[in-house]
Design brief:
Elements lengths: L11 E9 L5 H11 L3 E13 L2 E7 L2 H12 L6 E4 L5 H14 L4 E3 L14 H11 L5 E2 L3 H8 L6 H13 L4 E4 L8 E8 L2 E8 L9 H14 L4 H17 L26
Parallel strand pairs: 1-2, 1-4, 4-5, 5-6
Antiparallel strand pairs: 2-3, 7-8, 8-9
Helix pairs in contact: 1-7, 2-3, 3-4, 5-6, 7-8
């Protein structure tokens, strides 16, 4: 029987997220990212959306039972090295996910607190935000909010790096072991992402890549970090590699529809052929 490593795969990851019929975000972006980073992707779909590059026209949330059964089917069979969550639209969905995480106790969980689509459509109800803060964040090895999501989690505006540090500390106190506040929404030529681990801060700075094709960037980054964790990377190195992979994908972004397009997921970083130290 052929084992995983002999196939070229570096690990196994699970994405728990919504489906994007336009293919640029959600489950579709996650699985493309896993594949590009040579990690075997498994999935549990939380919602089905009708969307394209112009917006979201319909959302149907799957039952909590269906979501739990999908997760249990994967986790009871596969040696999943890391899990990432994306769109969790309701309190019931979040509670179902927490039940499964409690039962299987995975150590490497990346929470992408998806709240608003690229085109401005709400993807989570207000009560779910409270449940996310109270129950899900304590399961997270890493949580990866953008600036608007960070502000919704902490209740104050992020104006500068000092307020971002204060917000990261507050989110960490909610239970997350580490926090990555993404700086892409700030109007600047240099993008700064803030990583907060055990009270220590590391800033990742990189030039802004000017493109309107940014659909799925948050999904892609969290999936890339999860993929690197599944392959055996330590957290800080996984974050650094995830950011590098996203920069590569943004440089290959394109426009398959009439509106803003997705990043180009099928780029292959040099490290995917390296041994994990």
């Amino acid at each position: 029987m052929t084992n995983l490593n002999s196939t070229g795969y570096r690990g196994i990851a699970l994405t728990v997220a919504g489906s994007d019929s336009g293919g640029g975000a959600g489950i579709q972006a996650d699985l493309k990212t896993f594949a590009a980073l040579r990690v075997f992707g498994t999935s549990a779909i939380t919602a089905v959306t009708a969307q394209n590059s112009l917006g979201v026209s319909h959302i149907e949330v799957l039952s909590s039972q269906s979501i739990k059964k999908q997760m249990e089917a994967v986790l009871s069979d596969f040696s999943v090295g890391a899990i990432k969550t994306g769109m969790l639209a309701s309190s019931g969905v979040i509670e179902a996910v927490c039940e499964v995480l409690s039962a299987f106790a995975p150590q490497k969980v990346v929470i992408d607190p998806v709240m608003i689509s690229q085109t401005g459509h709400s993807l989570i109800d207000d009560s779910a935000v409270s449940t996310l803060k109270e129950k899900l964040l304590k399961r997270a090895l890493l949580v990866t909010p953008n600036l608007p999501e960070t502000e919704k989690l902490v209740g104050f505006s992020i104006e500068d790096m000092e307020s971002a540090k204060r917000a990261a500390s507050m989110i960490s106190q909610m239970g997350a072991k580490a926090v990555l506040i993404k700086g892409g929404h700030r109007a600047s030529e240099e993008v700064q992402d803030l990583l907060f681990i055990d009270g220590k801060v590391r800033i990742f700075s990189h030039p802004r890549i000017h493109t309107e094709n940014t659909h799925g960037t948050g999904c892609t980054l969290s999936a890339a970090i999860a993929a690197e964790l599944a392959s055996g990377c330590q957290l800080e190195k996984a974050v650094a590699r995830g950011i590098t992979y996203l920069q590569m994908a943004l440089k290959r972004s394109f426009k398959p529809g009439k509106g803003a397009g997705p990043v180009g997921h099928f780029v292959v970083p040099s490290w995917v052929g390296e041994e994990i130290d």
